[in-house]
Amino acid sequence: MSNEYPVCPQCGSENTYPLDTLMQCPDCGYEWNPDEITAQTTLQVKDANGNLLADGDSVVVLKNLPVKGSPSPIKAGTKVKNIRLAEGDHNIDCRIEGFGAMSLKSEFVKKA
Fold this sequence. Notes:
There is one protein chain. Helix content is 6%, strand content 29%. Strand 1 and strand 2 (22-24) form a beta hairpin. It is mainly beta. The radius of gyration is 19 Å and the shape is elongated. The strands form four sheets. A three-stranded antiparallel beta sheet has the order 1-2-3. A three-stranded antiparallel beta sheet has the order 7-6-11, with no helix packed on it. It has a three-stranded antiparallel beta sheet with strand order 8-9-10, with no helix packed on it.
């Protein structure tokens, strides 16, 4: 069953409902303002120069990066196209020719 209300940011439950101007989760009891949550959860990732990155951007690797299980590193100057931003320590998901799908840290790339 699909719910037109947003999922709970605390526990991820889909059983949410409106309560006046707030949303409430009956599973964990969390109450939130949906307008404030969407503004806070926008993922912002910056490259090594402080430029904001977005999904679909192209970046250039700044230094040789060793890859576990590969005899050769990703060379500095390698251009990576069509990145996707992700949560966590390695906050860029991408596909690099010759290496396949992997995650990179934004501190080692600059916007192309």
